[in-house]
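Q: Predict the bound structure with fe (ii) ion.
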Amino acid sequence: MKKLLFTLLGLAAALTLPAQDFKITHGPWLCDMTEDGVTVLWTTNKPALSWVEATEDDGRSFYAAEHTRHYETVAGRKQAHKTLHAVRLNNLRPGTKYCYRIFSQEVLEWKHGDNVLYGRTVASNVYKRAPFRFRTFPATGTDCSFVILNDIHGRADDMTELCREINFGKHDFVMLNGDMSNSIENEEQLFRDFIDASVNLYASETPILYNRGNHETRGVFADRLHDYFPTRSGRHYQLCKVGSVCFLLLDCGEDKPDTDIEYGGLADYDAYRREECEWLRRAVASETFRNASARVVFLHIPLDGGTWHGSNHLRNLFLPILNEAGINIMFSGHTHRYGFHPANDEVRFPVVVNGNQSYIRCDMTGDRIAIRIVGPGGRVAHTHEFPLR
Ligand SMILES: [Fe+2]
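A: Predicted complex:
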C-alpha cells in the first residue's frame, strides 16, 4: 500500500513539474575558419531546426536589413533532429569582418514523414548586446598572430585565469594543441573541461584550431570529439592556410604501444600514423604548401627522440618528410614542461614545447616569427625570435 502511495505521489509530482524551457545551452564557438568560410557550433537542450544569420559588419545595426539564413544541411536536407548544431558559412570574403546571430527553433514532435511540429524560436541577443563578430582569414600576406594552449587536462578555471590578460580580438585564431581533456567521457565533460571557458574567453568571435593530443583519444565519448570541432575534410589532421602561411596540424595518436593494457584493446595508431604520413607526403608536395611564405607545424607529442613508442614512431615517419619541407617552426606540448630545441642536423627546424602552466603568443610578420611563452599573471617566461628566410 505504502509502495503504491509513493508511486502515485511520484507520478503526480512528475506531471506537475514545469516542462523545461527550450534554450541554447552552450556556445556558439567558431572553428574550421578559412579565407571564405567558418563553422559556427552551439547546443540546445532539445532537438531543433537551427540557422545562422550573418552579414558583413559595415557598422550598421543588425536590424538594418533582413539577412540570409544559413542552415546545417546533409545532402540537401536541413537538420532538425539534433541538439548539437554546426552551421557552415560559405562564400565569405577574405580578411573581412562579419557579424552573426544564431537561431534555433524547437522541434516539438516529429513522428512520421516530414510532419514536423515546431515550437518556440530562441536566438542570441543582438539588442541588449552587440552581435557576435569575426574576421575571415586573409587570402595573402604573412602577418598573423595566434595563441597556443595545451595540456589543460580539464582545468578550465586555471585556463581562464591564465588567459585573463589576453586581448583575443587581436589574434587570428587560438590553437588548442592537445590534452585539453584527460579523457572524453560525455558531452557535458567537454563543455566543463574547456569549451565553455573558451566560449566565455574568445571562441564566439576568434576561431579555434583543434589539434588532438593523446589523451583526447581516450574515453567512451572520444570518437565524438570531431563533431564538436568538425573539419571539411572529416579528418583530425589537416593543412590550414592563413594568408600565405601554412599550418600543418598533425595528429599524434597514443604515446605507448597500441597493445598497452591502458588502451583496452582499442588502439590502432600505428596504422593510423602510417596513413597520416601518406597524407603528409602529399600535403607538403602541394602547390599551396610549396608556395607558402612560412610553414608552421603543430604536433602534441614532441619529436625529441624519447624512448616511448609513440614519439619514436612519429619521428621515424614524419621527420624525414618535415626535414625536407622547409618547416620554420614546430610547436608541441605533452611533457608539461617548457622546452626549446634549436634546429640541428637531425631536426632541421626549431621546436618550442609549451608547458601546462603557460600559453604561447606567436606574432608573424614578413621577416620574422616572434614567440612569447607567458605564465600566470601575464609573466613572460621565455622569448624566441626566428628570421623568416
Ligand atoms: Fe599528452
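A: The chain has two domains: 24-135, 144-387.
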